[in-house]
Amino acid sequence: MSAPAHESALLRTARWRPWEFVIWAVAFALPLLVPSHSLLVNEIAIVALFAMSLDLILGYTGIVSLGHAAFFGFGAYAAALFAKLVMPDPTVGLVFATVLSALLGLVASVTILRGSDLTRLMVTLGTALLLLELANKLDWLTGGADGLQGVVMGPVLGLFEFDLYGRTAAWYSLAVMLVLFLVMRRIVHSPFGATLKAIRDNRLRAMAIGIPVVSRLAVVYTVAAGIAGAAGALLAQTTGFASLDVLAFDRSADVLLMLVIGGVGWLYGGVTGAIVFKLLQNWLSSVTPQYWMFWIGLILVLLVLVGRDRLLKPWTWFGAGRKKGDKGGVA
Length: 331
Description:
- By secondary structure, the protein is mainly alpha-helical.
- About 70% of the residues lie in helices and about 0% in strands.
- α3 packs across α12 (about 250-260), α9 packs across α11 and α12 (about 250-260) crosses α13 (about 265-285).
């Protein structure tokens, strides 16, 4: 494919579809349409942003990570400490936490440049566990196991106070999510994003054709870390609290499950997975508080065995309408 043809193909894929405008309009209308669920909307927006940041390195670059919560938790503590010790302005605190998380990602990117997928899994997991233990030991700063309490946030842009119903929090998180979604969309639909996909598909071939693999990996890992830190900062700012839970392994595992549900290599896959996962978690935990994790696990097993597309079409479960060569796995 010639350079102009390749550029036009990138422009076509980057073009907004009508349904995307509808989805975002509905998302911003939800705090008004269902005000009693504004806090849930806020939580979904935060975890969706977190899932998209992981998809940037997993789905588009092929970097497997079990410790992405390290950046999420670091951003949460950075924003909470900034509000408590420096100033309560949420937008300044958000930028501060995002930049610090990106710097941490830049330092940590050295650990993912070499080795196999299994090595990266262990190294990323180890990074998250180190930060978790560090936050636990520095209880004079982070609050340790009791968490960082007494975080009071000022109004967003000096105008919009956080309310008890969570509507301001929901709009704030949705707005940040939209801005960072546009950044990620621009990245993945650019020539830079095309080189990331080439690295994902075959790293050796990408090196052979002159793609600077090391610098590309470092840049995308840094960007993904900054966006994950922004998601963590939003959680701390909208809840007024940061605890060891934000650095726990469960965070990294949950966000991976969201991508399994929604699909990798597609930014809306992180959004879809976050919506489905959080709604299932919310509903099942109210129906069966003790066994909700069992039912989510069962759904995930079915999803992997049957396949995401065929799970929605029961008549294809036993071979009817099955295409030749289709194994029914998760795309």
